[in-house]
Amino acid sequence: MSDTLAIVLRLLAVFVVFLVFPLVIGQTEHKVMAHMQGRLGPMYAGGFHGWAQLVADGVKFAQKEDIVPAGADRRIFQLAPAVALLPYLLVLVAIPVGPHNAVGQALDAGLFFVLAVMGVGVLGSLMAGWASANKFSLLGGLRTAAQLLAYELPMLLAAASVAMAAGTLSLPGILDAFHWWWVPWQIVGGLVFFTAGLAELQRPPFDMPVADSEIIFGAYTEYTGLRFALFLLAEYAGIVVLAALTSVLFLGGWHGPFGADGLGWLWTLLKTAVLAFGVIWLRVTYPRLREDQLQKLAWTVLIPLALAQIAFTGVVKVLIS
């Protein structure tokens, strides 16, 4: 009975994090962009520092009419937001937060699991673009497919380098094997992983599938109300997952200068928060890449770098052994 209760409490904690953290990221993005770009609007709602801006957005989405285009594939159109959002909930179950089994569910092949499930989330955009009966949406869906094919490979190769270094596919096992000198050793793989993750989330400067100046809003053009809000929530949940995975794989997760046992969870959260801030910072800093530039970056820069990191990891492993 105690084991069942422990599992229920862990899953409940994961669910609470899933509901709260993406909203925190959304609120932070409002404020960071307001300061960096001098936007006054997000600083007014609710009075002090615009604290109620996210609440106002939620009320706005809830009041909007839920419309399904007459020519759309109704079932696929309605299912797409859930397909985009739910995989990130499953990924959070396998990401360790602290030592001593502080994870929703420890998996022997946890790295394979999280990468495979994250890839499923992109299918929500493909489904939305195909089912909307809108040429702009279809074009956005096709761009999503091209982006997925280009950036999934460097992301997998970068993660494989860490698994090779640790000798395990278990995320807690990777953290148990971590040493401080892994950060400079695997830094190239970490940059490749983080960049490819941004592209898979379709975050600026890799937001070609939702280029509002070209194709209105890509695969999400026909979505309104709460269904559109679910796509936005999936984006923020993806930021949480990407930042947490990067911190676990390349920055040592719960390892820190002090208090690794008692404050391990705090180090994980701090690293995740810093990386999430970096995602927002990149949005307001760099212009959108052209489609050809986006593909060229993946195939001529990121993939060779990831392969070089794997080769370097193999050489170091042989020298150590």
Task: Provide an overview of this structure.
The structure is a single chain. This protein has 321 residues and is mostly helical. It has one domain (3-320). 71% of the residues lie in helices and 0% in strands. It has 13 helices and no strands. It has helices at 2-37, 53-63, 74-94, 110-121, 123-131, 135-166, 171-176, 182-185, 187-200, 212-215, 225-250, 264-285, 291-320. Helix 5 (123-131) packs antiparallel against helix 6 (135-166), helix 6 runs parallel beside helix 13 and helix 11 crosses helix 12 (264-285). The longest helix is centred in the first third of the chain and has 36 residues, at 2-37. The chain is globular, with a radius of gyration of 20 Å. The model has no long low-confidence stretch (mean pLDDT 87). Keywords: Cell membrane, Membrane, NAD, Quinone, Translocase, Transmembrane, Transmembrane helix, Ubiquinone. It comes from Streptomyces kasugaensis. Its EC number is 7.1.1.-.
Backbone shape: globular
Strands, total number: 0
Task: Please estimate the helix content.
Answer: over 70%
Distance between the termini: 45 Å
Helix/strand/pairing category:
mainly alpha
The DSSP helix count reads 13
| Portion in strands | under 5%
Q: What is the element string, with H for helices and E for strands? A: HHHHHHHHHHHHH
- Report the biggest beta sheet as strand number plus sense, adding barrel if it closes: none
Q: What Rg is obtained from the alpha carbons, in whole angstroms?
A: 20 Å
* Uncertain parts: none
Tally the structural domains.
1
Oligomeric state of this protein: single chain
Provide the residue-averaged pLDDT: 87
Keywords: Cell membrane, Membrane, NAD, Quinone, Translocase, Transmembrane, Transmembrane helix, Ubiquinone
Protein name: NADH-quinone oxidoreductase subunit H
GO cellular component, one term: plasma membrane
Catalytic activity: a quinone + NADH + 5 H(+)(in) = a quinol + NAD(+) + 4 H(+)(out)
